[in-house]
Design goal:
The complex is a heterodimer of chains A (113) and B (114).
Chain A: E1 4-7, E2 10-14, E3 19-25, E4 32-38, E5 45-51, E6 56-59, E7 62-67, E8 72-77, E9 86-92, E10 102-103, E11 107-112
Parallel strand pairs in A: 2-11
Antiparallel strand pairs in A: 1-3, 3-8, 4-5, 4-9, 6-7, 7-8, 9-10, 9-11
Chain B: E1 4-7, E2 10-13, E3 19-25, E4 32-38, E5 44-51, E6 57-58, E7 67-73, E8 76-81, E9 90-97, E10 104-105, E11 109-113
Parallel strand pairs in B: 2-11
Antiparallel strand pairs in B: 1-3, 3-8, 4-5, 4-9, 5-6, 7-8, 9-10, 9-11
Classes of the chains: A mainly beta (113), B mainly beta (114).
Chain lengths: 113, 114
Amino acid sequence: GENVEQHPSTLSVQEGDSAVIKCTYSDSASNYFPWYKQELGKRPQLIIDIRSNVGEKKDQRIAVTLNKTAKHFSLHITETQPEDSAVYFCAAGKRVNNNDMRFGAGTRLTVKP
Amino acid sequence: GAVVSQHPSWVICKSGTSVKIECRSLDFQATTMFWYRQFPKQSLMLMATSNEGSKATYEQGVEKDKFLINHASLTLSTLTVTSAHPEDSSFYICSASWSGHEQFFGPGTRLTVL
């Protein structure tokens, strides 16, 4: 089955700086890579996702890149703000049925004002 | 986006009792629901996947007789923790999806077993 590794486990940046979180996956058949943000005491919320037919996707200050050959994908947050502070989870799986979606261990991002 | 609810949001029970947690998709029909367990400051660990009208598929290491999952309709799945013990104390989160779409998470249920 799929195995996802995520780094770093904690990340602290100054407001306005960029933050990068990296994930690797093991199953070359995985074709869907979502990123979730979980604020303290709240449910995970999808913030961006990418499918295997594209290498990069951007949504305002958030971007995700995918390297299928190397089996890794990254989340980039630019111009970070204190409200970006949360735990971010990457995941990998097959879009069609989600049954084999696996999550990374999470990255606790702290943005210092 | 789609809305998923969970009930109760928190529960405290005595060791040896059973606890039922409900997961509902409020504005869509969920062909698949997932149950996760999350320990403090840790990731989401998939416990089982359930498809409406069929038996749940449990992940390795998850006791199916202890964590009973029922997905009787396209909008409701239940997780029953049977004969709960303190080590079962955790945050349980469900998610729901339909074919080809993302998972939408519920708000979670915090279970404390005394």
